[in-house]
Write a structure and sequence with these properties.
single chain
């Protein structure tokens, strides 16, 4: 199979730089060399640790902030980098500091947040993408950071994948065009003998390879593909990024035909470094080496030998450091492989000016700069795709009374999506971006300036009858693997948005739907219930860009026309992958090119109910739809939507923790009487009881109980205190017949799991659900 050829530019390095690196390596100890190949997260390392452990790189993951503050200022970020830099000076080699600035400097309050990549793909404008990369680099570097883990070059083929919005398009050609543009925007053009400019940062082409082609759209899954499809669909962005000078490439969690990419020497060494001529460093993903057969997070010679240069070991760095030194001494990892990895890492550090004392840039005035926000607003306007506009309802004329409705209308978290302030982006607020605009803010400003009125109504109720309603709704924020879905049906168990649209239409009000999502979804019922329907993706902080297109200027003429076109096909039904689409790749109406949309078939094409999750309640760090997780005590109940949560009276608290992967589990700590509960729609679990299923909890006892602990199912409790009496890993399995055999209870279960105690108790939950078990004994 002919893999595409590429080559890092000659300006990436030169003979003098290579000679200098050679001299540095020659005087390094083994401990210093191994240290260069390991990256720790700021939540699990301190600057002082670098006095003892000469690590080469530090990152701040999606939920890590300087000095424990997720909402730290840019100057605090810069100060943190300075502190790590100071303590790394003992090794004589500066650290390399990276963050996930994937749609702007998205860890930082007040930064400019651009549309997620799926929206940028709809623009079909590589020149604007390059401007976005440059603006992002300016803000990232202005907070002292020199490396971003972007751009994502996946070409997602199954939209059930929760990271689909990180892909520009399913079209590999568009991905390749954008790969070059974003790399040049972030880094600038490489100049021989010179470091990249102070207002640029290192780019990361990721995730190598086929993260967007896994079977079933499962995150961290297996791409079951022929080599020809692997190349044609998933490899095309990398040559463009490498030729443009990308300094780093991140390896994917996923597998190709059962082999984890983190251990695939053929792909990393032979293809990426060989055929594609990549001269920079390869970096792993968050503890992903621990998923390689025969590896753990603290021991994985297989990944080193496959060609991984920098191991992302956020909380496992110390054990990995010690074990890797032992592996080299024992010959399990050749010293030549370590030297090659160190050379590549130092090559990147040289190009960033770190070997020549690059200063920590600290310029708060560049964060959220007006120039950057103007670029973002333009990107929002260009990313909008008009799917329907019956009766030329849009643009909205001067003097119109507008009702702005929907849970996304004035919600910064919903319009920004995941990877915003925090990893999953659930707790982002307008206060985090005081210079930004919600979609309602932008609409109200434009409508008022045009002689009309705009009223915000959360539930669609009104006192003065509007001329038109703009309903802003869609997916709630999510990020990797927590965003995976079983079908492409939009909220199959929650029809509240559809009911709202129909209620407004029944009242004789014209309805414009603005749909926020990280992927095209089966929304034919919602499109039928709308006079106009706009795919707005995840636009970021500049909601005014929506109004720029929807609201007419003086005289009723459009201020901007719709120019966005689908970079992914829009599904006709809820099946995936998409067969015959409703709207094909490249579709998009405009004011200049209107098109009639007939009444659409509303059948989902599959049994959506059969795809709904009745048996699994908690996995990958969150409650699984349709189930919700909450904490309760005598003060009431409080839902867990992400982050650290306490029950109303503070008797129970919970926070995300890592067991095998980033935030894949949740610790619950009782200091008094309280309950953690999983609740949802009435579900018939008779079959599960008859077929010998058990309520199973996988996790860890962090602090054994001193008072009785009750595990509940369908309103019936079983005492499991004796099963939790020892700290350490646990697999708790209680057969359903131990709770009840009453069919009346089993046919309408709303509370399939709860844990209650008087405290104290600390329990980490990794997985909770129903499984068939052979042992049917009761506790």
């Amino acid at each position: 199979m002919r893999w595409p050829r590429a080559h890092s530019p000659a300006a990436f390095t030169n003979a003098a730089t290579e000679a200098r690196i050679g001299r540095i390596i020659a005087r390094m100890t083994l401990e210093q060399k191994v240290g260069q190949t390991i990256q720790a997260d700021i939540s699990s390392i301190t600057p002082q640790d670098l006095d003892r452990y000469p690590l080469g790189s530090i990152l701040a993951g999606g939920n890590s902030g300087p000095f424990g503050d997720e909402r730290a200022t840019s100057s605090k970020w810069a100060e943190m980098v300075r502190q790590y830099r100071a303590h790394a000076s003992a090794s004589g080699i500066p650290i390399l500091f990276g963050v996930d600035a994937v749609h702007g400097h998205s860890n930082l309050p007040g930064a400019t947040i651009f549309p997620h990549n799926i929206g940028l793909g709809a623009m079909h404008d590589p020149a604007l993408v390059q401007q976005i990369g440059a603006a992002t680099a300016d803000e990232v570097s202005a907070s002292g950071i020199e490396w971003t883990f972007a751009p994502t070059l996946a070409a997602p083929q199954d939209l059930r994948w929760g990271r689909s919005y990180e892909g520009y398009s399913s079209d590999p050609a568009l991905v390749a065009t954008y790969a070059r543009a974003m790399t040049l925007g972030l880094q600038g053009r490489l100049i021989s003998g010179n470091p990249i400019a102070a207002n640029h940062v290192a780019a990361t082409a990721k995730h190598f390879l086929a993260d967007g082609g896994t079977f079933g759209g499962k995150d961290q899954g297996d791409a079951r593909l022929s080599e020809s499809l692997l190349v044609a669909h998933h490899a095309q962005g990398y040559p463009a990024a490498i030729d443009a000078g990308a300094l780093t490439v991140m390896i994917s969690f996923s597998s190709w035909n059962g082999v984890k990419n983190h251990a695939n020497r053929s792909l990393i060494t032979d293809v990426l470094k060989g055929r594609m001529g990549f001269a920079g460093l390869t970096v792993g993903d968050w503890n992903a080496h621990g998923q390689v057969d025969g590896c753990t997070t603290i021991h994985c010679p297989q990944s080193y030998n496959a060609g991984l240069d920098l191991m992302m070991a956020p909380d496992s760095w110390k054990g990995l450091y010690d074990n890797t030194i032992a592996d080299v001494r024992a010959g399990r990892i050749p010293i030549a492989r370590i030297d090659d990895a160190v050379r590549r890492i130092l090559r990147v550090k040289a190009k960033l000016g770190l070997l020549d004392g690059r200063k920590v840039r600290d310029e708060p005035s560049r964060i959220g700069h007006a120039e950057h926000r103007a670029i973002a607003r333009r990107a929002v306007a260009q990313s909008l795709v008009l799917l329907k506009n019956e009766g030329s309802l849009l643009p909205i004329r001067p003097g119109t009374k507008v009702l702005v409705v929907g849970d996304g209308a004035d919600d910064m978290a919903k319009q920004a999506g995941g990877w915003t302030i925090t990893w999953q982006g659930l707790d982002t607020t307008k206060k985090d971006f005081p210079a930004g605009q919600s979609i309602y803010d932008g609409i109200a400003e434009a409508v008022t300036a045009n002689g009309g009125t705009a009223t915000l109504s959360a539930d669609g109720r009104f006192e003065t009858r509007p001329d038109v309603a703009i309903v802003v709704f869609g997916e709630n924020p999510y990020a990797e693997f927590q965003g995976d879905v079983p079908t492409l049906a939009y909220r199959p168990q929650d029809t509240s948005d559809l009911k709202l649209l129909k209620r407004l239409r029944a009242a004789g009000i014209k309805v414009v739907s603005v749909f926020l999502s990280g992927r095209p979804l089966f929304t034919s019922p919602e499109i039928n219930a709308s006079d106009a329907f706009v795919a707005a993706w995840l636009p970021g902080t500049e909601g005014g860009g929506v109004a720029d297109v929807l609201i007419a200027g003086p005289g009723g003429r459009p201020r901007r026309d719709f120019t966005g076109r689908l970079s992914f096909a829009w599904p006709r039904d809820a099946r995936s992958p998409i067969g015959r689409p409703l709207f094909p790749l490249g579709y998009g109406q405009s004011y200049a090119r209107p098109s009639h949309v007939p009444t659409l078939a509303e059948a989902p094409g599959i049994d959506v109910a059969a795809a709904l999750n009745l048996d699994h309640y908690f996995e990958k760090g969150l409650a699984l739809a349709p189930w919700t997780m909450s904490l309760s005590d005598e003060g009431g109940a409080r839902p867990i939507n992400g982050g650290t949560v306490s029950s109303p009276s503070g008797k129970v608290n919970s926070r995300p923790v890592d067991l095998a992967a980033q935030e894949d589990s949740r610790m619950v700590r009782w200091i008094g009487a309280g309950t953690v509960s999983f609740d949802g729609p009435k579900s018939d679990l008779t079959r599960e009881a008859i077929e010998g299923f058990a309520l199973v909890l996988d996790g860890r006892v962090d602090e054994p109980p001193v008072t009785p602990v009750k595990l509940g199912f369908a309103g019936i409790d079983v005492d499991v205190t004796s099963l939790l009496g020892k700290a350490g890993p646990i697999r708790l399995a209680v057969p359903l017949h131990c709770f009840t055999t009453d069919r009346a209870l089993l046919t309408a279960v709303e509370n399939p799991a709860r844990i209650a105690t008087q405290g104290p108790l600390a329990l980490t939950i990794k997985r909770l659900g129903l499984e068939a078990v052979a042992d049917q004994r009761c506790p």
